[in-house]
UniProtKB/TrEMBL annotation:
UniProt keyword Hydrolase, yes or no: yes
Membrane topology, record value: Multi-pass membrane protein
Alphabetized Gene3D superfamilies for the sequence: Rhomboid-like
MF terms (GO), sorted A to Z: serine-type endopeptidase activity
Organism of origin: Adineta steineri
Pfam families: Rhomboid
Catalytic activities: Cleaves type-1 transmembrane domains using a catalytic dyad composed of serine and histidine that are contributed by different transmembrane domains
Protein name, UniProt field: rhomboid protease
Domain Peptidase S54 rhomboid, residue spans: 84-219
Function as written in the Swiss-Prot or TrEMBL entry: Serine protease involved in intramembrane proteolysis.
Coiled-coil ranges per UniProt: none
Any one GO cellular component localisation term in the record: membrane
């Protein structure tokens, strides 16, 4: 990202027209490299079908002399008609908006990921990590504003948090453990932080849900549940797997069909103050859009 930013904008981090607070490249570079950006992925009435709708160019650093680029230029690929860059469900996991963003995620990954890998094995962790991350981005694509740009492995990390929670439940002893209380507090804090602008709660929620479903599916029956017959436990795991698959299929299909649109779901991602819940929607009554936002 930094090399591409240097080559295309002359600076490894965004310093103009404003400084990137997480110390990284500008949002247009992230889109160019494969961030989740709805107009590059599916039809949006008034945006993708409007040949006169433009965005700021990648190397634009002057808001006075705005250079305009088409959606094709912004997405950086040869667009099909309608746009269908499905790989933007996967690539954002490997992209981050800056040093602070990737640093925080790496710290969380090292603390939780290492212990979960030692306890559950590399393969299980890998499956939960990537599928949770992809599903988090898919859920984000269903409910987040159409002008938001999503990058980062937050969904994957919340999948690991869900795995950690399942492990605590499986190892439960008498009374509520300190680990359980700490984890619940951490989940609540992260959810509350997700209500702030530029932090994507839908990514977190999607990753956690998928992580929980996959954790129950992949982990073996714990000894403390020995009173449950093995075939019943097998049915339970299979049921969780089916639910995970159906959620995955339905969520992807709904992004393109938009059959179900939740009007109140936005309040899971923002506080209804200072017009926070109206941030990030592309306007169809302008010719140049210059206010894209990034979800971490």
């Amino acid at each position: 990202e930094l090399i591409q930013s240097w080559l295309l904008t002359g600076s490894p981090i965004q310093v103009k027209p404003s400084f990137n607070p997480v110390i990284g490249p500008n949002v247009y570079l992230l889109i160019r490299m494969g961030a989740r950006f709805s107009p590059c992925m599916h039809t949006i009435s008034g945006i993708t079908d409007n040949n006169f709708y433009y965005f700021l160019c990648l190397n634009n650093t002057n808001l006075i002399e705005q250079k305009s680029c088409s959606l094709n230029d912004i997405c950086g690929f040869t667009l099909s008609s309608p746009p269908n860059q499905w790989y933007r469900f996967i690539i954002p996991i490997f992209l981050h908006s800056g040093f602070l963003h990737i640093g925080f995620n790496l710290l969380t990954q090292l603390i939780l990921g290492a212990s979960m890998e030692n306890k559950n094995g590399s393969l299980r962790l890998l499956i939960i990590y990537f599928i949770s991350g992809i599903f988090g981005i898919i859920i984000d694509g269903n409910f987040a504003p159409n002008g938001f740009v999503t990058v980062g492995c937050s969904g994957s990390l919340f999948g690991i948090i869900a795995l950690y929670l399942v492990n605590i439940i499986y190892d439960w002893r008498n009374g509520i453990s300190y680990e359980f209380i700490t984890l619940i507090i951490d989940i609540i804090i992260n959810f509350c932080l997700g209500l702030l602008p530029s932090i994507g709660n839908f990514n977190h929620i999607g990753g956690f849900i998928m992580g929980f479903l996959l954790s129950v599916t992949l982990l073996v029956q714990p000894s403390r549940f020995h009173f449950i017959k093995s075939w019943i436990w097998l049915i339970l795991r299979f049921t969780f797997l089916i639910v995970a698959i159906l959620l995955f299929i339905f969520s992807i299909e709904n992004i393109y069909s938009r059959k179900i649109q939740c009007t109140w779901c936005k309040y899971l991602d923002c506080l209804p103050i200072n017009n926070w819940c109206h941030i990030g929607y592309l306007k169809t009554n302008i010719t140049i859009n210059s206010t894209l936002n990034t979800f971490y």
